[in-house]
Design goal:
Shape: globular
Structural class: alpha+beta
Bound molecules: adenosine-5'-triphosphate
Largest sheet: 10 strands, antiparallel
Distance between the termini: 13 Å
Number of strands: 16
Radius of gyration: 19 Å
Mean pLDDT: 91
Low-confidence stretches: none
Order of helices and strands: EHEHEHEHHEEEHEEHEEEEHEEE
Length: about 325
């Protein structure tokens, strides 16, 4: 049974530890913060602004605050992603005011970027448990696992994430942000398409061995601000989704991307999809990798374990 919303007056609830990333959304979060602050005050939500200049910084500052203070991330996917180690460690809940560029986490939670009303209304709802992914990059220094909420991509996906950092701010006189920015990077990335030899094991069983240009392991359904790479995925079902593009030429990948936008690619003969609790990916040579949309360098091997219900979230779907 779903617990009822918190009926305590807002002022008697623990304060929100607000992690504002003013750079998120190319400065949108910083510009919108005065409006967010006004709304928090108008609703009587107690809060304390956490001073931080990076995810690890924010985690360290949060760790000094009582664990029953929920964290409120004001920014994009990277801002929320940066808090996961501390949220997992302390069990504190996550709230989100999505003001980033891609906002795929917002979409995972059923929120829309810039819809302040809905984002703040959600904060009085009872917390929900969401699954997390724990990734071990075999080549990583110290082998420290990384926690993800949305998912990871290797190959073409990560090339595109990399190219996004090089995209011009404006194109044909129009600002190039969010999804159009991703599209620009995806079209540019087609020219540099790489195919590697990949072996995938799911829950200890061989699943795929052969050429691949793209491998995604997802907890959420979309990345890149709108590419529905794992349609039907549910971050509460205790399963991760593996989606592979096998041998694909540039001319085959372009129309396939259009299908990914609509989430209609899973039946394509060059796409493999499965759900599992544990995935091991092993490439013959290192492939570019992103973790929750954050670039993570080139890696040959990684292992992903699903942590069921590991994250408490206030901003979940009603
Ligand atoms: N608390 C923080 N303070 C400052 N910078 C941060 C913080 N957390 C993460 N960052 C850095 O800021 C970058 C941008 O933040 P974020 O990803 O939230 O915005 P975005 O890239 O505009 O949005 P999206 O990820 O939704 O496309 C991150 O990639 C990360 O390197």
């Amino acid at each position: 049974m779903t617990p009822p919303p918190d009926s305590r007056p807002a002022s008697s609830r623990p304060p929100f530890a607000v992690v504002l990333n003013p750079q998120a959304g190319r400065g949108l979060a910083g510009r919108e913060w005065p409006r967010v602050e006004r709304e928090l005050k108008a609703r009587g939500f107690p809060y304390q602004l956490v001073q931080a200049s990076s995810g690890p910084d924010a985690c360290a500052a949060l760790a000094r605050l009582p664990a029953d203070w929920p964290a409120l991330a004001v920014g994009g996917d990277g801002t929320a992603h940066g808090l996961l180690p501390e949220l997992y460690r302390s069990g504190r809940s996550l709230g989100l005011v999505p003001l980033g560029s891609g906002n795929d986490l917002a979409s995972l939670l059923g929120l829309r970027a810039g819809d302040l009303e809905t984002a703040l209304d959600r904060l009085t709802r009872p917390p929900q448990r969401l699954d997390l992914l724990e990734v071990t990059l075999n080549g990583s220094v110290g082998g420290q696992p990384v926690l993800l909420l949305n998912g990871l991509g290797m190959g073409f996906d990560a090339q595109v994430a990399d190219l996004m950092t090089l995209a011009p701010a404006r194109l044909l006189g129009l600002p190039l942000g969010g999804f159009p920015r991703y599209l620009w990077a995806a079209l540019t990335g087609l020219r540099r398409l790489e195919t590697g030899q990949l072996r995938v094991t799911l829950d200890g069983q061989p699943f795929y061995s052969g050429p691949s240009c793209l491998a995604a392991v997802m907890n959420g359904g979309q990345y890149g601000g709108g590419f529905r790479i794992a349609p039907g995925s549910d971050p509460q079902d205790g399963l991760l989704n593996v989606v592979l593009g096998t041998q694909l030429s540039r001319s085959a990948l372009l129309p396939l991307m259009a299908r990914v936008l609509q989430g209609r690619h899973l039946g394509h003969p060059r796409v493999r999809h499965a759900r599992a609790q544990h995935a091991e990916l092993s490439w013959q040579s290192p492939m570019q990798t992103h973790l929750d949309g954050e670039l993570a360098g080139r890696h040959e091997q990684l292992s992903v374990r699903l942590l069921p219900g590991a994250l408490s979230v206030l901003s979940g779907r009603p």
